[in-house]
Design a protein that fits this description.
Helix content: 10-25%
Strand order of the largest sheet: 1-3-2
Strand content: 35-45%
Number of helices: 1
Structural class: mainly beta
Radius of gyration: 17 Å
Length: 70
């Protein structure tokens, strides 16, 4: 079964906001560590929020050339 989409927002602050503004662009992969919180929105739907305490931006690596089969 395919997974269900869950809306999650990331709240940057303190020591992460300046780096997030400069390093994260559309399509950027990143990892955050922090606390997870949630609120009940319209029609009882839950919306999750991560309060980011640490941020790590992942850089894309060039894929290695394929090796020829022997």
């Amino acid at each position: 079964h395919p997974g269900k989409a869950v809306p999650i927002s990331v709240k940057f602050g303190g020591n992460t906001v300046a780096y997030a503004i400069t390093a994260i662009k559309k399509g950027t992969h990143f990892t955050v560590s922090g606390s997870l919180d949630y609120d009940e929105g319209e029609q009882g739907r839950l919306f999750y929020r991560i309060n980011a305490e640490q941020l790590r931006v992942h850089t894309r690596k060039e894929s290695a050339p394929a090796k020829a089969a022997a």
